[in-house]
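hey so i finally got around to running the thing on that chain from the lab meeting. sorry it took forever, my laptop kept dying and i had to restart like 3 times. anyway pasting the input first so we r on the same page abt which one it is
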Amino acid sequence: MISSIYHAIIYQPILNILVFFYKTIAFYDFGLAIIFSTIFIRILLYPVFHKSAKHQMVMQKIQPKIEKLKETHKDNKEKQLKATMDLYREHGINPMSGIGLLLVQLPVLIALYQIFFDKFTPAISSNLYSFVGAPATFNTSFLGLINLEQSSILIVSLAAILQYFQGKMMLPKIEKGRELSTAESVGRQMVYLGPVLTLLIFMNLPAAISLYWAASTLFTIFQQKIIKQQFGPNEELGNFRKKTD
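ok and heres what got predicted. didnt touch it at all, straight out
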């Protein structure tokens, strides 16, 4: 049952989107088809990603308040948790939004891996919609230079670099002389750990998956830039919520 649902609402639509772009504006370049498909998917899911990015930025803004609550209720973990959750509700944020964002991305990555694992055999044509149709041949290269069925250290490195800049953008400025909290220290370490994990996870996977991740991360960078323009460094949280809700 779950497999059928996944096939109908994830795998098959992504396959058809890829083939559609491949045969049209990508000019039979599968790398370009992946990039166009990524942009299309991210536009469809823009509200989900936008809300998640907004929540992350608000959480950075209220981090000093969270640390103050920890200090105030340091002897009572139950009160500390309740006060923290009340603070989240006050600012309309969900602390689990970052995990939700990853869960949205995961089915797309699995579908892409499965598509390239199947290696575009003739049998895959049975999953194409009638208005899409199968191309005569599949050229699984990017700009005629990189075979997307094989791993590519170049694309993996690009994805890792883009992820580093994305993480760097999300870091708030720290007042000179102020000691970092444990959460802030972990957040800053993740800026470096994230790209390392990207290298380790994607370096042995088809370059198509790394290309999707790189394109998706680049889209996120532009999305975060838009939100940062809406939310200046000295702007009040209340004004920010009015702008982005």
